[in-house]
Amino acid sequence: MNAKQKMRHILDTIADMFPNAHCELNHNNPFELTIAVLLSAQCTDETVNKVTEGLFRKYRSPWDYLAVPLEELENDIRRIGLFRSKASNIQKLCQILIDKYEGEVPDSHEGLTELPGVGRKTANVVMSNAFGVPAIAVDTHVERVSKRLSIAAEDDSVLTVEQKLMKLVPRDEWTLTHHRLIFFGRYHCKAQKPQCPICPLLDICKEGKRRMKPAVKTQTKAKKAK
Questions:
Q1: Which residues bind [4Fe-4S] cluster (predicted)?
Q2: Residue 94, annotated ligand binder?
Q3: How many independent structural domains does the chain possess?
């Protein structure tokens, strides 16, 4: 099985497991998605959705975020990690949107990454989910799964992981693959307790086989003791 065949096997298997994988950040437009992804750094989507439920009712446009003192916005997102720096970035981002884009979120990767608090991952999420441009955003789940399944090397940077996935995955599947890898990492191949014993990809997962060895040794010892 070569690299592309292996990738195809992984894609088909994860598709069977998570056929309805999707962006779990609640949003109604590109602007809300940009804010939600910015808030999601080092924070769970579940917490972000709880915060944005009220946030998006109060702030509907870039002008709304700039109409309040920074301290008020900080208080509105206090449950989010790094809330002070994120609040500051939101207001700076909103000012740029007003000054350069008439209050609209730019529909280009270059325009998005120029915004405060918006890195390559955030830009990829917005481009793919808000504007329909194929992209693979590499978050902690995508990176972990890619390395455990030896799609990428352990010491690969996030950018290298993204480039390897883009090379192996057909372009029209990039966005859906991003969502499915996230679901696989979030709900199955978890950071602390991956479900290796029931994983359909265990046969090609070095990490899974390594984790399963202690269980096999324990079972062998138990049999010998009998």
A1: 189, 196, 199, 205
A2: no
A3: 2
| Residue 213 annotated in active site | no
Q: Are residues 151 and 217 in the same domain?
A: no
> Which of 4, 50, 58, 121 is the catalytic position?
121
Is the same domain home to 184 and 212? Answer: no
The answer to whether residues 153 and 220 belong to one domain is no
Q: Residues for the chain: how many in total?
A: 226
The pLDDT score that the predictor gives to residue 1 is: 80
Exposed, middle or buried, 226 (CB in 10 Å: 0-12/13-18/19+)? Answer: exposed
Q: Are 38 and 117 in contact (CB under 8 A)?
A: yes
Q: In terms of residue numbers, what domain contains 79?
A: 1-195
Active-site annotation holder among 4, 16, 45, 139 = 139
189 in a known ligand binding site:
yes
What per-residue string of b and e applies to 136-175 under the rule 16 or more CB within 10 Å gives b?
bbbbebbbbbbbbbebbeeebebeebbebbeebbeeeebb
pLDDT of residue 214: 63
Find out whether 205 is annotated in a ligand binding site.
yes
pLDDT the model gives residue 34: 97
* E strand or H helix that includes residue 3: helix 3-17
Provide the pLDDT for residue 215.
56
Report, as ranges of residue numbers, the positions in the chain whose pLDDT lies below 70: 214-226
- Whether residues 63 and 119 share a domain: the answer is yes
The secondary structure of 109-166 as a DSSP string is: HHHHHTSTT--HHHHHHHHHHHS--------HHHHHHHHHTTSS-TT--HHHHHHHHH
121 is known as an active-site residue: yes
